[in-house]
Amino acid sequence: MNLQEILFSLGIAFALGCDAFAVGLAVGTRNPCKRASFRLWFHFGLFQFLMPIIGWNVGNSIVEKIKDYDHWIAFGLMFLIASKMLKESLETEENPDEDKTKDPTRGLSLIGLSIATSIDALGVGFGMGIAQMTLIKPAVIIGVTAAIMTYTGICLGKNLSTRFGKRVETVGAIILYIIAFKLLSI
User: Fold this and answer.
1) CA distance 81 to 115
2) What pLDDT, in 10s, does the model give residues 94-113?
3) Residue 29: exposed, middle, or buried by beta-carbon count in 10 A (0-12, 13-18, 19+)?
4) Is residue 99 domain-resident?
5) Where are the alpha helices (DSSP H) in 62-135?
6) pTM
7) How many CB atoms sit inside 10 A of residue 71's CB?
């Protein structure tokens, strides 16, 4: 990987990790035990690693059929993901006094959160597959970054408000917009 590919991968990883950071921050306010913290950051990192691979395989398999306008599709997907992230970052919490006794790091809640925070990575992988970009190293960077950002969010969540997490999502959305426009030049 050259420096540009590393910076591209880190930019995508940071943007995708913002949702994981925000959820980690919110869960951190519940003061989870070490085991619960591990479950969350491990699963978020794993799903963020796997989803781009799944998306890439789907995108790469249809590239010959759409090669004349693939960059527009990749741009559109990234733009939609960024718009979704920006919209979510600007929304206010509907239920801030939500039940804090339920452990979101177990069972279906953990799986649901893992999928929800990594669904954007599926779209990124799809776009990368259409653009015929390499994936394994970026996927590892995305997964590790998501795990680190989740862990950091959990640690900071004890002292910071959930509202700060929304601002981080806004920054992530802006980064995805920049990456989307960069995809037009591929």
Assistant:
1) 15
2) 555 544 456 778 888 888 88
3) middle
4) no
5) 63-66, 70-90, 107-130
6) 0.71
7) 17
Helix (H) or strand (E) holding 60: helix 34-61
Domain that holds residue 9: 3-90+104-183
Q: Is residue 95 part of a domain?
A: no
Q: Which residue has the tokens 């339920």?
A: 102
Look at the chain and report how many structural domains it folds into.
1
pLDDT of the residue at 53: 93
Contacts of 37 (CB under 8 A, 6+ apart): 27, 28, 105, 151, 154
3-11: long-range pairs with CB below 8 Å, 24+: 5/134, 5/137, 5/138, 6/141, 8/138, 8/179, 8/182, 9/137, 9/138, 9/141, 9/142, 10/141, 10/145, 11/175, 11/178, 11/179
**pLDDT tens for residues 136-146?**
999 999 999 99
Contact 137, 9 (CB under 8 A): yes
Distance, C-alpha 72 to centroid of its chain: 21
The residues of the chain scoring below 50 in pLDDT are 98-100, 161-162
pLDDT value of position 147: 97
